[in-house]
Amino acid sequence: MEKGKVSEFLKKYTMVIVLVIVVLFFTWQTGGRMILPQNVNNLIAQNAYVFILATGMLLCILTGGNIDLSVGSVVCFVGAVGATVMVNMKMNVFIGIIVMLAVGLAIGVWQGFWIAYRRIPPFVVTLAGMLMFRGLSNIVLDGFTIAPMPQGYLNLFNSYIIDFFGGQGLNITCVLIGVIAAAIFILITFKGRMSKIKKGYAVNKASNDIIRCAIISIVIIGFMWRLAQYKGLPNMLLWIAVIVLIYGYITSKTTIGRHLYAIGGNEKAAQLSGINTNKVYFFAYANMGLLAAVAGMVTIARLNSANPTAGDSYEMDAIGSCFIGGASAYGGSGTIPGVIIGATLMGVINLGMSIMGIDMNWQKVVKGLVVLAAVIFDVESKKNSR
């Protein structure tokens, strides 16, 4: 492989390589406990909110490096409202879910209005939201914890897909789903390749695509195999997968997705080309509010309670995952798959250090250094490309 191609390959897959190295490091340091089936399951359960919030945060960052500081407080507030409706008021679980989604969307619309149509800086609006909704959470909860959540609600998030084949010690349904997911990925990859060839676009070498498909398929099947050795496929993973697929499609295949990248690249040029930039900003922050509500639903299900400290520092994990996953601090670049890699890396670091018994304060130091390193890499890479 030529030197230029090696450099391009390393730049493109830097975070994937880092993720593999970090997993191997913690597997070694924990004597293999890192990849035990139960810990693989915990990686999903404990970091589901990161995957969900980071997906929405990417849309905000794409618009020009903007962020939403309020998501942690919104998660807490939505959870407080939902718990009050379902536990204290004894309302139906599905009514509670609708109320939580409506509250999250309303918050997103509120903040999106000031950011998009009144042009108040996102940092100021969301900083105000962070303070407001944390205060409202405490008012709703009156400083107390509401628990437990209804069993019907917990079943939507904390249960597992039934093994239809009745496997003993190994969830065959989970493994089969992994094989099907890998097959679909391969099919989509080569269908996209054939489509590009027909249109006369440049494509990667066939050997590169084959190697990439082989590696990703092995990872998918291996991951599902480990889950199958515990309890199988958790419902939480399905929620994450649906959200990732929807927003992955929005950012890569739709007009509004292209507009997000265009505004982040050059807002003035985007306006001159006829893009309604106000509408795009509004869309990004309204979606962030909606996804914060989903993260709030997931959080109270995992904790089986709503408490005044829920969602603390969630915004930092979401922002960090985006930057680690390759989103530019200046906006205009970043992908949903990259964000998922970043969120997974954050989750692996959290889980690995927890298993090793490292103090929580040192965990924050390490995560801060990782985020800083990712942004420095992005900035320096852009300088070198110029």
TrEMBL record:
Source superkingdom: Bacteria
Main location: membrane
Protein name: Xylose transport system permease protein XylH
Cited InterPro entries: ABC_transp_permease
Membrane topology (UniProt): Multi-pass membrane protein
Cell compartment(s), UniProt: Cell membrane
Keywords (A to Z) from UniProt: Cell inner membrane, Cell membrane, Membrane, Sugar transport, Transmembrane, Transmembrane helix, Transport
Organism, scientific name: Claveliimonas monacensis
Residues that span the membrane, as ranges: 12-31, 43-62, 69-87, 93-116, 123-149, 169-190, 210-227, 233-250, 280-301, 336-358
Pfam families attached to this UniProt entry: BPD_transp_2 (PF02653)
Role played: Part of the binding-protein-dependent transport system for D-xylose. Probably responsible for the translocation of the substrate across the membrane.
